[in-house]
Fold FLYWCH-type domain-containing protein.
Amino acid sequence: MALNFIKSSKGKNLLSLNGFIYTSDKVSEDRIYWKCENLKKNSGKGRAITSGETVIKENNLHNHSGDAAGIEARIVYGSMKQEAETGRDPCKIYGRKRQEANLTKTSFSS
Ligand SMILES: [Zn+2]
């Protein structure tokens, strides 16, 4: 399974996994240690470890539910921003990304 990395508004790399967003905690030679983005806010213990494109460990100790729709919106926004920054027409890109998002959503709602 390919991993979804997204950029935060501050330009940090985030990991999107099973409806949760992780921020990088520690980076070793071949592994990245992630902690749930909500860890500080609500003292959850959600953590994950990845190596390259592989999830080595995900403990799933979240004390809150995931937010797949919200994350999808952030992924759309993040990739839109990236493409806009590389000099392509942001209006066209926005429309296309919206379509892609809607297509993925229909598989959930029906
Ligand atoms: Zn969590």
Q: What stands out?
A: Strands lie at 4-7, 13-17, 20-27, 32-36, 47-51, 54-58.
